[in-house]
Design brief:
- This is Clustered mitochondria protein-like.
- GO terms for molecular function: mRNA binding.
- Keywords: Cytoplasm.
- It holds the Pfam family eIF3_p135.
- The protein is α+β, with helices and mostly antiparallel strands.
- It is built from 46 helices and 29 strands.
- The protein has a five-stranded mixed β-sheet. Strands 11-12-15-14-23 form a five-stranded antiparallel β-sheet, sandwiched between helices. A four-stranded antiparallel β-sheet has the order 6-7-8-9, with no helix packed on it.
- The two termini are 36 Å apart.
- The relative contact order is 0.08.
Length: 1389
């Protein structure tokens, strides 16, 4: 059947719009361009004149940086700008220059070099000549971007260069449904168990970098002698051209020239007829025609989008390296010493970070400059930490202290140490926990808004070769430390802490004010502790924290690793200790109270006050943990406070109802309302008895802390709150997580996504054993098997990593590759035992010159598979309190939990930093080691660091999410474009949140009918996800799936199929086939493919949906319908009727008999039945030949398939909630009653009155931002389709069907996750304010097909019922938009 006209302009529109929208300019950015953007002409420096687009708000140095990045100027440096004969100030704004207007001429002026700028110019030339090769990212351990390789289209036009840009090649692609690629490979078909790794990283289509020179190095006569330095010689270079000629070059302030020196004779005089060139490449072009040709080709090559070539702020590891570990070409420029010269510079990281932090924030432009400066400093700090860890652990740096147990190192402006292992905190495990908690504390204090005067040191932790190092910038020293002893202690710097001593000064008062503000933001209680000297010290932080006034005049807070409250579930020993200093009588009372509580516990079976009934019996908590630094996560503290606030409001309401009614007590003005508030505050544990204020003490139940006698009552309250908070994890957060996974088809796929999902609910990973128990005890255990699989795999890998870290400590450096490969074989091969010899090992030993195989003389070589599994099993029991039979062997994990060995290998490498050679590994071969020493390419540092803010971009992103919840897609689109522009200004789009923002922008644009924009923005999202999160990260899988939909919408069928197949390949590698999202990808592939392969994927999707969700789920019903549709296209109407009946039964149970969704299935079933009867009649009349004919009207069109993909992938959500409609009806009834009581006329009455008078006023006027079309609008007025951001729903706030304790009156989405906030509705109903026709928090958009009125498929009706830009016809709501309301939420006239 001929396809319908493609929406959004098709490929032609995509070709014209693809580059215009790629930049993601926001409304603010576009407005600034219109107001202050103009073109100027650039001349000078030996260049041909060209135009440059500038902005009035740019600084002169911004203009210069933009020029230096142009192909016409690169690699020139040491330049300045002049206008009207005057050299411009670099810090001046262009709009302040008099006479500067469009078309003005700005000249480039060549400035003299200094010794430093000459080396910088040399480094810039080398950066240009070191053109990145196709395998460079893998060699450096960075995650590559594969989108260009996967979507590269071969062309027969020889005029097009091989390295053309991704977007140009995609926009020139001409494909249709009849020109699709061959069948998918067998390893991607449903049911296949092959997991080839070679397909994960296909060969790059970009050519290798050409050779420009044979050699370029420092001359043997360098450095210049003293008398030549006095004459201006900086460097002597030696160059060998491709023609074989050798030249000696002198670098001086004016530039570069040839001298007369040779290998044997030193003669620094300029060669005859050798001019001085300001740029080195100009001189090389002058002496070498071959260099000039290749260099011209290099400068004229097509530029890739910046998001593909700009270095990422932070290193994203690739666990797979290139297939060949050796270099394919020599490093021509390794002997110039540029890298070594840069490494000698020692920056002051603390001063750089604090200087960036102190930048002004009064305007948007200033905040963007500040955020970008902080990101650049922090990313440079993290890169230095990675290099420093490798240098320190490899033994190239000597410790600065004499303590072998806690060595400290100074390198590159960093202070690096392992930290002392304290027995009080649990030895080695406690030391690692303290380093991790210190980083979290620094992040928490850095995130507090309005606290710029309180500073923290730049901090990061790095794991390398089994060693964890803590890295910090150098502290500035104490203020006044070099003064005389007569000065007060305050003037000497240490102002706050348990050891600060009694002091009083203006600086201390100012610091205490900052700490009090921080304590309020972090929900920490002010309290008093007893110092070792016996003094009582008031604290706003943990007992370890210290506040100081640095030598730079800034306030710093240090040692914040115990800033968060203790997790009482894992510190029973501390709980038993009495932490207060009491007299004899109080000691007796304390002991008697404990004895009474123990007796009550024995009699009643419950534990002390604060714990739920039978808590210890049901959960086994509290119990001991390997270290003593178990703290609550800040996310849990906030969730617990919200939970307590809900309890507080409920108690206030209940108390008022008992005393005469809520309204009467609230308006009477007597003490009943006050008494109710006081009683509720006391019941929930508020620190104030007149308002709700929940704060926790970080030092309660912490070892080594002593409290004064007067704090007894406060301590009892704090202990009770900590017990309730700890129990809140088990009783609320873990069940909520399980419920979320049960209802969300984009559940966690690997360890990283599981960790993120748990941490968002405040669940620490030490609760993995309890999460596993909750899933195992659930009645939906079978539907949660994919989550159980991820939990078991995470437990196993984390325990394995701890064993691996200890294992590496006994391995010497020459044996690292052999030891790591041996460890992996013991881990993944059942009953693996080391080989003691053999011909193969002897041959390898002779080749290398030393033994590489296991040897009896090496301790690590004696490790066997059973021994390793016993160690891992012991760690799982100690850490996660689960039975040891969980990890009895690799085959046990595969058989009982469905884990894949290749997925375990991937998780192990990502967590330990091991990089393996790219090849296919056969992990089931027990006769031969599957991983050899040659397969281990590298071990990379794993860095955890703080994240700098992107304040304005994040605010715009959240504003867009709020607009989406209200159904205002036009407003959301503008906010998203603004956020994308701001992200580009701060981090060049290379940020996880920028990826989520672009993903949401693409979805909104697609729903508005802007298919070309959606496609181009989604291209950027895929590249960002691959480079920032990882080429095989779960988010990358989601991005490829969405890109496939938008490619299909643009008519690029081949590329869409490649995207879906790529998503399935990654899904199979990361998790396996048994996951709900695999069903989503399979449905898309089933719709795209033809013949039996389409049926294979559709059957797989139906099987997975049925097993995870059951037969009465919306996803299952849709899969049943797709199967019926496919069977109809084959002419198998009886089977199609069977599947459609199942879909009808599910719809009837979910929606009822009279719902539009049910009517749709009834009509389609009726259509199938009639068609079957017609075919049967044709069969009887014309014979068997006619039975093979497929009726054309039942074959889905391209637009029908697109609509079904949109529903399957969640771009438009299928929901079944009627809570909004119920609320809306009650709201209308209540509003009518109120107006009637007040004597006001309803809008309908006013309209009727005006109509009777002959007026023709419209009651459904169009509002400014898509507000609700009148009070009497039909179903779903003012709503837009529910959209999912980064795989998580961004729908109306009241679509949440889960039975939450607090009412869901609003929702925010942070990093693609839905975060619902408890509202003020005490009875759990949704409340909303309706102002000027706008409904805040628009309701559920039920995506259902309309009633069939002709013999077409359900998808045809969906396609005909709406246009992609959201405009509606007279049919029912399909896109989740009411009759007469566009997808933007604007009412039609």
């Amino acid at each position: 059947m001929k396809d319908k006209t493609r929406r959004g302009g098709g490929r032609n529109q995509a070709k014209s719009d693809v580059m215009s929208t790629a930049g993601g300019k926001s409304a603010v950015g576009l407005k600034q361009e219109e107001d202050s953007s103009f073109a100027v002409k650039i001349q000078g420096a030996g260049l041909e004149s060209f135009e440059l687009q500038v902005h009035g708000f740019w600084l002169v140095q911004d203009t210069l940086m933009s020029l230096l990045s142009r192909n016409e100027v690169c690699p020139r440096s040491s330049l300045s700008l002049s206008f009207a004969g005057t050299v411009l100030d670099p810090l001046a704004e262009l709009q302040t220059l008099k006479g500067l207007k469009p078309g003005a001429i700005i000249r480039l002026v060549e400035e003299p070099y200094t010794a430093c700028s000459a080396r910088l110019h040399l480094a810039r030339v080398l950066e240009l000549l070191r053109a990145s090769g196709p395998q460079d990212a893998l060699r450096e351990g960075r995650s590559p971007s594969l989108l260009d390789t996967l979507t590269h289209v071969q062309t027969t036009d020889s005029s097009l260069p091989n390295g053309k840009s991704l977007k140009r090649s995609l926009s020139n692609t001409k494909t249709d449904s009849t020109n699709q690629d061959a069948a998918p490979p067998e390893y991607l078909l449903p049911g296949s168990t092959d997991r080839p790794l070679m397909a994960l990283l296909p060969p790059c289509t970009q050519p290798e970098a050409p050779s420009y020179l044979r050699d370029l190095c420092l001359s043997c006569w360098n450095p210049p002698p003293g008398h030549r330095k006095l004459q201006g010689d900086f460097l002597y270079l030696s160059v060998t051209t491709m023609e074989g000629r050798q030249f000696e070059i002198t670098c001086c302030p004016k530039g570069f020239f040839l001298n007369r020196s040779t290998e044997d004779v030193f003669d620094p005089r300029p060669a005859q007829s050798s001019p001085v060139h300001h740029c080195l490449t100009d001189l090389l072009c002058h002496v070498s025609p071959a260099f000039k040709t290749t260099f011209t080709t290099l400068k004229n090559r097509p530029q890739l989008p910046p998001v593909e070539v700009t270095p990422t702020p932070y290193h994203t590891m690739s666990w797979l390296g290139p297939p060949c570990a050796s270099r394919t070409h020599k490093n021509t420029f390794s002997r110039l010493g540029v890298d070594e010269q840069a490494a000698r510079q020692t920056p002051d990281w603390n001063e750089e970070l604090q200087a960036a932090r102190d930048l002004p924030q009064s305007s948007v432009e200033e905040r963007l400059h500040r955020d970008r400066a902080m990101l650049q400093v922090n990313s440079g700090f993290v890169r230095a930490v990675m290099q420093g860890a490798e240098t320190v652990v490899d033994g190239f740096v000597e410790p600065v202290n004499g303590n072998p147990e806690d060595p400290a190192f100074l390198w590159g402006g960093l202070f690096m140490s392992q930290g002392a292992a304290s027995a009080m905190f649990g030895g080695e495990r406690g030391r690692r926990a303290a380093q991790r908690l210190e980083l979290k504390g620094v992040q928490a204090y850095s995130n507090i808004e309005g606290l710029e005067e309180l500073h923290t040191l730049p901090t990061a932790i790095v794991d390398y070769r089994g060693v964890r190092l803590s890295a910090q910038g150098l502290a500035p020293g104490l203020e006044g430390s070099d003064q005389s002893e007569e000065n007060s202690s305050a003037s000497r710097g240490l102002l706050y802490g348990i050891n600060a001593g009694p002091q009083e000064s203006a600086q201390r008062r100012r610091l205490l004010g900052l700490l009090a503000h921080a304590a309020k933001c972090l929900s920490l209680q002010r309290h008093v502790v007893v110092a070792p000297s016996g003094l009582r010290v008031p604290l706003f932080t943990s007992v370890d924290a210290q506040g100081m006034l640095g030598g730079d005049g800034r306030f710093y807070i240090l040692d914040v690793f115990r800033s968060f409250p203790a997790d009482v579930n894992f510190c029973p020993d501390v709980e038993a200790d009495c932490q207060t200093v009491t007299g004899e009588e109080e000691k007796k009372e304390c002991c008697e109270k404990e004895e009474e509580e123990e007796e009550e516990e024995k009699k009643g079976g419950c534990v002390k006050e604060g714990w739920p009934e039978n808590y210890h019996t049901n959960s086994g908590l509290p119990h001991t943990f390997p270290h003593g630094l178990c703290r609550l996560r800040p996310e849990l503290v906030q969730a617990f406070i919200q939970h307590k606030h809900y309890q507080y409001t409920q108690r206030v309401r209940e108390t008022m109802e008992e005393k005469g009614g809520f309204e009467e007590c609230a308006t009477a003005g007597d003490s009943r309302a006050t008494d109710a508030v006081r009683a509720a505050c006391k019941a929930v544990g508020s620190v104030s008895d007149i308002i709700f204020e929940m704060r926790l003490n970080p030092n309660v139940l912490s070892p080594g802390v002593t409290f004064p006698p007067g704090e007894s009552s406060s301590l009892d309250l704090q202990k009770r709150l900590l017990k309730e908070a700890a129990a809140f994890v088990i009783t609320h957060q873990i069940p909520d997580f399980v419920t979320h996974c049960l209802e969300n088809y984009e559940a966690p796929m690997d360890g990283a996504s599981l960790k993120e999902a748990l941490h968002q609910r405040g669940i620490s990973l030490r609760y993995l054993g309890h999460v596993m128990k909750a899933i195992s005890d659930s009645e939906h255990k079978e539907s949660l098997r994919h989550i159980l699989r991820s939990v078991v795999g995470e437990i196993f890998i984390r325990s394995t990593r701890r064993v691996f870290n200890n294992f590496l400590q006994g391995v010497d450096v020459p044996s690292l590759c052999a030891a790591i490969s041996h460890f992996l074989c013991c881990l993944l091969v059942p009953h693996f035992t080391p080989t003691t010899g053999g011909e193969d090992t002897k041959k390898k030993s002779r080749r290398r010159g030393r033994g590489a195989g296991p040897s009896e003389s090496l301790p690590w070589s004696t490790l066997t598979g059973p021994e390793l599994w016993n160690l891992v099993c012991q760690d799982t029991v100690e850490t996660y309190n689960i039975p040891g039979s969980l990890v009895s062997g690799p085959n046990h994990l595969v058989e009982h939990y469905g884990l894949q060995k290749i997925s375990l290998l991937r998780e192990f490498c990502l967590k330990t930093g091991v990089q393996l050679r790219l090849r296919d590994y056969i992990l089931d071969n027990q006769s031969k080691a599957p991983i050899g020493p040659d397969d281990v390419l590298n071990i990379l540092p794993i860095v955890k660091h703080i994240y700098t803010p992107t304040s304005d971009a994040s605010k715009a992103y959240r504003a867009a999410q709020n607009a989406i919840q209200k159904g205002l897609l036009d407003q959301a689109h503008e906010h998203l474009k603004e956020a994308a522009y701001l992200f580009g200004r701060v981090c060049d789009d290379l940020h996880p949140e920028a990826c989520y923002c672009n993903t949401l922008l693409a979805r909104v644009a697609f729903l508005q009918g802007k298919t070309a924009e959606a496609r181009s923005v989604q291209l950027k999202s895929v590249v960002i996800s691959e480079r920032v999160l990882g080429f095989d990260h779960p988010n990358t899988i989601l991005q490829y799936t969405l890109l496939g939909v938008y490619m299909y919408a643009g008519g690029e069928m081949v590329l869409a199929q490649k995207c879906f197949l790529r998503a399935r390949l990654l899904m199979l590698t990361v998790h396996g086939e048994d996951h709900p999202y695999t069903a989503t990808v399979d449905s898309c592939l089933g719709l795209m493919l033809t013949g039996d392969q389409s049926g294979q994927f559709l059957k797989s999707s139906l099987r997975l949906h049925t097993s995870f969700y059951g037969p009465t789920d919306l996803h299952t019903a849709l899969s049943q319908h797709l199967m019926a549709q496919w069977l109809c296209s084959k002419g198998e109407y009886r089977s199609a009727m069977s599947h459609e009946k199942e879909a009808l039964a599910a719809s009837t149970i979910l929606f009822g008999e009279n719902h539009a969704q049910t009517s749709c299935h009834k009509e389609f079933l009726s259509t199938i039945t009639k068609q079957a009867v017609q075919v049967e009649r044709s069969l009887r009349q014309a014979g068997a030949d006619s039975a093979e004919q497929t009726v054309e009207c039942l074959t889905p069109t391209t637009d029908s398939i697109l609509e079904q993909m949109v529903l399957i992938t969640g771009i438009r959500k299928i929901t079944k909630s009627d809570r909004y409609q119920e609320y809306k009806q009650k709201h209308e009834e209540l509003k009518a009653a109120v107006r009637k009581e007040l004597g006001l006329k309803l809008p309908s009455e006013l309209a009727a009155l005006e109509t009777a008078k002959g007026g023709e006023k419209s009651s459904d006027k169009e509002t400014e931002h898509g507000k609700e079309a009148g009070d009497g609008a039909e179903n779903n007025s003012g709503q837009a389709a529910a959209i999912s951001a980064n795989g998580h729903e961004v729908g109306p706030a009241d679509e949440d069907d889960s039975d939450r304790a607090a009412s869901d009156t609003g929702g925010e989405i942070v990093n693609g996750e839905s975060e619902h906030k408890a509202g003020a509705a005490a009875n759990g109903e949704v409340e909303s304010d309706k102002k000027d026709g706008e409904l805040n928090g628009a309701g559920t958009a039920t995506v259902s097909p309309p009633v069939l009125k002709c013999k077409k498929t359900w998808a045809d009706i969906v396609s005909n019922a709406s246009i992609v830009n959201g405009t509606r016809d007279k049919d029912s709501a399909v896109n989740g938009v009411a009759d007469g309301v566009t997808v933007n939420g604007t009412a039609d006239e």
